Amino acid sequence: MTPTLCRVATRLAGFALLLVSMACTEPTTGGLDAAPAIPIGAGGLDTATSDAPDVAAGDAAALADSNSDAAADSAATAGVDGAAAEASDASAPSDAADAAVEVVADVKPEVVVPKGVPSATITAPTKGAVFELGKPVEFAGIATDTLAASPQLQALWTSDKDGVLGASTPDAQGVVKLTTNKLSAGQHLIQLEVKNPQGIAATDARTIGVCAWSAPESFDTKLDGAKWKIYGDAYWDPGGWLEMTGNAQGKFGKIWNIAEYVQPGDVQISFKIATGGGINGGADGFAMSVIDVKSVAELEAVLAKAGDGGCLGYGVSGACGKEKVSAFHVEIDTFKNAGDPNTDPTPENHIAVTLDGDPGKHWLWKETPGIEDLKWHTVTVEVKGAKVRVTLDTVELFNDAIPDFLFRGGYIGFTGSTGWASNYHRFDELKILQQCVVK
Ligand SMILES: [Ca+2]
Ligand SMILES: [Ca+2]
Ligand SMILES: [Ca+2]
Ligand SMILES: [Ca+2]
Q: Which of 69, 99, 233, 416 could cross-link to 286 by cystine, CB 3.0-4.6 Å?
């Protein structure tokens, strides 16, 4: 065996060490019997050369422990071989030179590549935004890196609740977008991870909510008194809806949910209304209200003060009373009041948002001339931050911010009133987009 082969073979894994050692120390033709070690050595050259010192040392220790003479010899040989490697290469014949070239190539130091620092920023949706289950949610972000161009980066969107939402490549400006309608209901911590070509990652995250509509209240069967409580002239109509007054003069009533509390924050509420059929041009109107009180007892104390006529069964402040209450109302007003006791912004029928029990302050309103047709119409109310959007049969009436407004939640209910003029005042199919409590 040539010195080179011996050296290479000696660097093999421990199980072959003894055999190889003997072949190297006995330069006879018998050494050729060790040839099977060569193909293994050739195949494992890269590993063997780089790991050789460890393997040799480990084997030397292991074999020394065995107390065998042969083992001691081989350990010594391995140690000498490792130490003498440089010297042997220097004076080696041509086949040794080939091996030396490979060894040099293998130990060539790695080129130090400068590492970039990536950055990830979620730009949409806003933190704490709430979405309706099944509707598309549009995510957007910016992915950049101190070295790599944005299109060289990888962007990955994930939800802590639903896992991977999608991967994409940023455009030249670093913009990454993803739209999905697959988010499950509940709170999600959305994360954008940006990875640069070196595998270094940056992340940004924010919480959003995906909410499901509550089961609609159909009011098709007699009300459960533990949930819906009736006050004044209101009643449940066997036709399958709530009636606030009946078609008679001088009535006012209320029906309230005393079992559930609408959470504060963004909310969507949908219900159906029908009014009309009355005398003297029809009046006065009705309202959906959410009153922010801590208990049903407090709620009832407020409701007990609510006025009739132009106060629509919910007015307790302004021209209608002196109560201080935090409340949100959407009124459907079908009679023009002018200082009796409050004043309307238009002689026409209107739908308006009022606050805190004051029917005289119309924060947002729109004329709805044909509303007294005693047909069913759908009203939706969407609160997003200080903005309130109201639609009537899918037509937007208004979508504006109310200064300093914050939906505070509370107990939800309905009121209505008649006076000299009358009308039916019906509510049905209440749906509330369940508020996900989003941090
Ligand atoms: Ca119904
Ligand atoms: Ca009217
Ligand atoms: Ca009015
Ligand atoms: Ca009004």
A: 416
